[in-house]
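Before the break, one more example. Copy the sequence into your notebook; we will annotate it together after we see the structure.
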Amino acid sequence: GRHLPEPILVQTLDFWNTSFGYTGSEGGKIYRTSNSGTIWVPVFNPANRVISGFFMFAPSVIYLAGSQGYISRSADSGANWDDGISWDKVIETNTTENLKDLTFFDNVNGFAIGENGQISWSAGGTVWNTIPKLTQENLNALAKIDTSRAVVVGDGGIILKTEDKAKTWRKIESGTTKTLNSIDFLGEQFGYIAGEDGLALITTDGGETWTQFSSGTIRNLNSVSAGTDLKAYFVGDDGTIITFNCTPPVGNLGQISGDSQSCLATTTYSITQLPQDGSEIIWRVDGGEIISGQGTNSIEVNWTVSGRNAVLVSRSNFCGSGETSAMEVNVIKPPSTAIGIVGDGKVCTGNSYTYSLPNFEGTIYTWAVTGGELIQGQGTHEAEIKWNLNGTQQLSVTQENRCGDSLPIIKMVSVNSAPEAPLGISGESKVGLGEQIYEIDEIEGLNYRWSISGGGKILSGQGTGSVVVLWENEGDFELAVEAQNECNFSSKRILPVNVNIITALEPINQGNLKIYPNPSQGNLTISSDNLDSWSDIMIFNPIGQLIETKIIFQGQSEVQFYRLPKGFLLIKLQGKNGVVSKKVLVR
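Here is what the structure looks like once it is written out:
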C-alpha cells in the first residue's frame, strides 16, 4: 500500500490525471502527490475544517469545499489560499451548511452541495449564493454530465438534476428512500449510484430514469466509479469491492404461437416462457398495435395495416435486449368494391378480350357474363371473355377471401360487329374514257373503302359514300366498295363496269354548251341551244359529294346556280342521249 505520512481520516481524494492529486481530511490536513501517490507532501491550509471535496482547473489551480460553508482556492498548488480566514475575506459563501463537494462547468459557472439540501452557485468563484432548496435532505455527491448538465444525490433517495449550469434544479424519481452516497457518469447517458444496504442504481438515459439492480451485498456502498458504459466498480463497508458488468439477457424466448394468416382484426400471440428477474418481456408489432399484454407472455394485437407484417419479442433489461423471436404475419382485408374491372368497354363479336382486377393473395374471383362466354380465368383475378351478341352486355365479378366476400363489381360493355355490305352502287356501268361518279347510300359512323380491279383510278371521295373514277383504259372491270367500323370491313359490294371508247365517241349534240364564268365567284350559268336533250344537272365537290342538282325541263335553254362552294367542282349533265362532265373552279 501507499501510506500518508500521518494517520488521518481521509475524507476525499481527487486526481487531475494519473499522477497529480490531492487528499483532504477531517482536521483540514491536505496532502498532494505528483507521482501517482508514491509520495504525499503536506499542503498548508489555515482552516481547521473538514475538507470534503476538490475541483482542479489545473494541477496548480484548485478549489476545495468543507464544513461550515467553507470554500477556498489556491493558484499555486496550495502554497497560498484565498479563503477569507488568514487574509482579507476574498470568497463569500453566504452559508454555514457543511459542504460535501463542488465543481465547475466552465471557467465561470460552478456549484457546491452540502447538508440540508444546500446548493450554492457562483459565477466566477468569489461570491456563492444559495439556490432555492428542493429538499432538506443532505446532499452527498455530485456528477457532471456535460458542460451544462449535472446530477446530485443525497439522503432519503433524493436525486436532483440541472440542465442550465446549476441555476435551476428538478427532482428525479429514484424509487428508494435509502441514502445515496456516490454517483459517477461515463459519457452523457450511462451513470451509476452507490447507496446504503448494498443499493446500486443505473441509468442509460442521462439520469432521467434509474433502475435498481442486485449488487450481491447488503453492506453500505460508499463510492462508485464507472469503468465503461456497461461496467462499474463499487466499494463499501468492511472492504467490500464489487465489479458490476451490465449484460443484456441471454437466450431467446422460443417460437411465437398465433395465427400467421390474419384479417384486419384482433389476434392473440404468445410464448411459453415467463418474465425473469432483472428483465422484462418486450413485444413489438409491425403493421398493428398491441392493445393488451405488453410485458407478459401473451398479447392481443389489433392489425391495422394489410400486407406482410411481423410480431417480435425479446427479453430486455437496462443493459439492452436479448435475442429476438419473430413471426411473419400476412394480414389481409375483406375484398374491396372500390375498384373497377380493367378491360375494353367497346368490343366486337367473335373476338376474345382480357379483363382483370388487382391480384390479392388468398382471394377467389368469380366471373359472370351476359352476351358472351368465359374462355378461361374463372377463380383468378384475370378472365378472358369472348363476346357473341351485339348490344350492351354485362360483365361482373365477386371476390371472396377468408375475411369475407364482396358485392359484385359490374362493367357494362358495348358489343358491335362488322357492318353489312352496302346495298348497291349507283353509277354508269357502260362508260367511255373519262371521269364518272359512283355512289352508295351512306350510313353515319361508317367508313367506306373503294377499289377498282383496273382500267383507271379513284380521283376523290375515298372513305366516303361517293367517289369520282377516272377510266383510262378499255375493258371489263370491277368497282367495289366495303363498309368499315371499329370491328372490321363488310363484304364487298361490286359493280361490273364496261369501258368502251366507242361509247365515249358517240356524237352528242352539245348545242353550243356553255358553262360560265370559269373561274367563278360562286354563281354559275349553264346554257345550250338543245339543253333539254339532257334531263338533269348534278354538281359534285372535290371529294365526290353531290352538292347541287336541278332538273332540266322541256324547252329550257339556261340554268343558274348561286353561292357555290369554293374549289374544283364537277358539273355533270346526263340524260338518255349520254353524259357530259365539265370542271369549274370556284374562287
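The helical segments are 501-505. The chain has one helix and 51 strands. Try to locate both features in your own notes.
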